[in-house]
Predict the 3D structure of the following.
Amino acid sequence: MLKKILVINGIIRNVIVSPEASLADVLRKQLFLTGTKVGCGKGECGACNVIMDGKVIKSCILKMKRVTDEAEITTIEGIGSQDDLHDIQFAWMIHGGAQCGFCTPGFVVSAKALLDQNNKPTRDEVRDWFQKTRNVCRCTGYQPLVDAVMEAAKLMRGEVTRKQLWLNLPEGASLIGTETVRPSACAKVTGTWDFGADLGLTLPEDTLHIKLVQATVSHANILSIDTTEAEKMPGVARVLTYKDVKGTNRINGLAFPSNKGDGLERPILNDKKIFQFGDAIAMVLADTPTHAEDAAKKVVVEIEELPAYMSAPAAMAEDAIEIHPGTPNVYFELKTVKGAETAPLMKKLPNIVEEDFYVGRQPHLPIEPDVGFAYLDEDGKLIIHSKSIALHLHALMIADGIGLPLDKVMLVQNNAGGTFGYKFSPTIESLLGVAALDTGKPVYLEFSMYQQITYTGKRSPFWMHLKMGADKDGKIQALETDWSVDHGPYCEFGDLVTTKGSVFMGAGYKVDNIRGVGRTVATNHAWGSAFRGYGSPQSLFASEQMVDKLAVKMGIDPLELRYKNALKEGEVTPNGCKLDVYVIHQLLDKARPYYAKAKETAKEKNKNSVDKKYGSGISLLFYTCGLDGADSSEVGVEITKNGVSVISSWEDHGQGADMGSLTHAHETLRKAGYKPEDIKLIMNDMRITPNSGPAGGSRSNVLTGNATRVACENLLEGLKKTDGTYRTYDEQIAEGKSTRYDGKWTAPCIACDVETGQGNPISVYMYGVLVAGVEVDLTTGKAHVDKLTIVSDVGTIINKLVVDGQILGGLTQGIGLALTEDFEDLKKHTTLTGCGIPQIKDVTDDITLIYQETPRPLGPYGAAGVGEMPLSAPHSAIISAIYDACGVRITHLPAYPEKILAGIKKLNK
Ligand code: FES
Ligand code: FES
C-alpha cells in the first residue's frame, strides 16, 4: 500500500492506495468522485479523462504508483456544479452535447484543458485536441461538441453572455420545435448523472460481485464443469452453473409461429453445448470483483469442440451439422410476392442489373459497457436494474427461465450510456436474476469493454443477391431478391429482422412486381440483436446500390433515376403499404442543388489532383416508426399538489426520452396553464410505470408520444369544470374525483403475411435524402467523407436539439458502417479501436442538416420518429461517392482501404 497526498479539485486529500490501482478507481471507488467514468478501461475513449498538473490524463490506465505526491488533479466535479456551471458545461447543454452523457465529463475536462491554454481555438484546433486526448463519442457525431467548445470560448472571452444564449420562451409558449435543453442535461454535464456502475458503488456492504466463466471457443459440447477449486478460493460465496438455475434456464426468444425452432434455445448458463464465443457457462459470486475474477479462472470446463459455422453460407452448407439439434440451421423463411411473376418480365426488359451484397456484423460500441444489479425487495419481488430498453418485454422473456412468476420480476432502467439497440435483447438480466434468487443477496455485474464487445448481440449480417429490371425509360418494372440473415446462434427477433428484407429492399420506389425469399440462419458467430436501422441498412444498401448501378448502366443521373421511380401519391411500398405522406420528390428537389454542388466541387478538385480523387453520391433514406402490426403504448398521468406527474416506461438510451416525454405532456397540459417546471417525469421502473413498450423501431416518439398525449387529454377532461376551466388538485380531491388518468395508443396496423411479405404493418414513416462527398487516396485506398448534406422529413420536429443530435449521430454511425466498423475477427475486433469506431477526425465537420416538416396524420402533433432514418442508408451514398471518385464499387462492407486499393489495381490492369 502507498500513502499519497493529492490535491484534488483544490482540496488536499490523503489516500491509502494499492500501487497497482488505477487513478480512476481511486477517484471513483475510494473518493466517490463518480463524475469520472470508465468506458474502455484501456486508454481508448477518454471517458476517464482528468487534468493532472495541467495535462489531460487517462485515469483508467494511470497506476497510483506513477502519481506523484501533491499532484494537482482536476475532475469534472472541480470544473463546475449544477448550481455553478462552468461556461463549457453551459455551452454543452445548449448545443445538445450530452445525449447519453457517458462521454460528457471526459470531454468537458479535455475542453477545459484546451481552453486554459488557448481561449480562441479554431474548429480544427478543437478537433485536433479531442483527437489527441482520444475523446470518443458514439452518440453525437462530434459536431455539437465542437460547437459547444467554440461557444464556451466566446463566453469565456466575454463576447457573448449566457443570458443571450439561453432560450427564454414566452409564458405559455409551446416547446415544440424549440431548442429547449433536455431535463437531464445539467446532471450529465456535471458528472452527476449516475450510471449503473455509479449506483453499484452505493449498494449494501454484503453485495456479491459476479464474474463469468465464458466460452473461449465458438461451438462445442460441454462434457463437464468442475467448480471444486473455485469454490475454495478466498471470498467466494457461490459458484453457479445451469444446475443452480431454478427455472427452465432458457430465454424466451418469442419466436414467430412459422419459426421452425421453439425460440427457447438460448440458455442462461450453458448446459449441454457452447453456441458462441463468450457464452456464459458459470458465475462466480464473491465479496470483491477481484476475488470473483480469481476464482472464475479456477472453474474447469471440459469440452468436445465442434465445427464452428461463422457465417450464413457456412451454416447452410449441406454437410453442416445442426447447431441446435432438432432445428435446421435455416429455421425461418419468408417470401415477397407482389404483382406479376418477375422471371418472364426480366427476359423482356432492356435494362437489367444484378449483384451480390454483404452488410456485416456492425458492433454497437456504446462507451458504457453493460452493467446492472439485482436484489429481492421486501415483498419478495426480484428487482433487476440494467440498461434494458424493453423493461416489460424482458421480464416476459426471462421469467420462466429464472423460475419466477412474471408478476414477481420487476425491471428498472438505470441511466444508460448508449445502447443503439443492443439492449433490445436481454443480456445480463437473467444472470443477475439467477444469482439474486440463489443467494438472496444483492448482486452486481459489470462487463469490461472486451466482454461488452464479444458477448453482446451485433447487427445481423445480410448476404443478399438482387436483380433489378427497368424499361427503356428507366422505370423499374421488376425486382428479384434473395437474402440470408446470419443471426448467430440465438433466434430472438431473428425472424423479425428477416422480414425487413421484404420491407426495405426497393423501399421508396414504385416497384410493382417483386419476387423474393429471405431466410434466417443460425450460425456460431455473435447472436444478432437490434441495431439502429434494424434490417434497413442491410436491405437499403443493396437496393440503393442497384438503383445506382442501373443509373450508370443507362447513363442517367442517379438523382434523376430516383426521381423517376420515387413513390407518388397512392403508390405502395414493396410490402404493399400506402405511405403516410408522399414527400420523396420534394426531398429530392431540395437535395438537387446540393448534389449539383457536390458534383461540381468534386470535378474542380479532380482537375488538379493526381493521388487523390473526389466523388459524390446520393441515397434515399427510409425508415418506419413502430413495431410491426398493432403496436401499442400506455402512459399514466397524475395531478399532484405540485403539478402533474407523467408516468411511463419510455426507456432512454440517451436519445432524449425525457425531452420527448416532457414536450408531449406539456403541449397538452399547457392548455390548462401548466408550465414545463410543473411537470415531473417518473420513468422506467416497472413497479410504478406502465407498459409503454420498448424503445426501439423509432416507435417511442409516435407510440408513447401519442399515449402521453391521450393520457394528458384524459386528465384535462377529468379536471374540466362546466365553465371550461380546470379544477386544481385540492378541488379535485374535495370533489372526490380521480387524480390519476391513463392513456393508451395503438397503431391501426396488421403485420405482414410471411407467405407474401404483404400487409400494413406501419402507420408512420420517415424519409431522407443524403448527398455525400468523399476523397479517395489512390495510393493507399483510404476513403474519407468530406461532406454530408441530408434533407430530412421526420414530420413535426418535437425538439430541434434532439432531432439534430439523432441525425448527426446516425450519420456518423453510417460513416463507420461504410468504412471501418465490423465485428468479424474474434481476435482483432475486440476493442473500440479494433472495431473501427469513428474518432473525431474520421467524421467530417461539414455536415448540413435541412428539414422539411410534413405533419404526419397519425403522429403526435404531426411528429414521426427520427433515430433510425439517418442510419438506414447513408453508407450507400458514401459507397456510391467512392465509385464516383475512383470507379470501384464496394459491395461487401466495410470499404476497407485494401479493398478499394485492390479494386483500383484491378481497374488499372
Ligand atoms: S480511456 Fe479510460 S475509460 Fe476509456
Ligand atoms: S453522448 Fe457521447 S457517448 Fe453518448
Remarks:
- The two ends are 65 Å apart (CA to CA).
- The longest strand covers residues 612-625.
